[in-house]
C-alpha cells in the first residue's frame, strides 16, 4: 500500500487546501509561492471548485455535481465541505465572487469535461 491510501492523504487533499487559501483572499501567485505548485494547476483547482459551487447553488445532487465537473468523490466532497465551512457572513461574499467568475468565463458547452450539459 502507498502512503496516501494508508493515511488517507492522497493527492486530492492539497487541492482543498489551495482552494481554501483562494477563498481566504490569497491570489494565485501568492498560493503558488506558498504551496510550490504550478499556476496552471492552481487555476484548474479554482475553476473546478467554482463549478462545484455554482452547481451546489443550483441544488444539484452530489453525484450530479461529481459527474458534471468530472471530479473524484473525495475532491467533490472536499469542495462541498469548503462551501459549507465558508458560506457564513465572513466569506459568503467571497464565494459569490468566485461563483460569478465561473459564470462569466465558462460557456455552457465547456462546463462539463466529458460533454455538454442540457
From TrEMBL:
Protein name: DUF1670 domain-containing protein
UniProt source species: candidate division MSBL1 archaeon SCGC-AAA261D19
Lineage per the UniProt record: Archaea, Methanobacteriati, Methanobacteriota, candidate division MSBL1
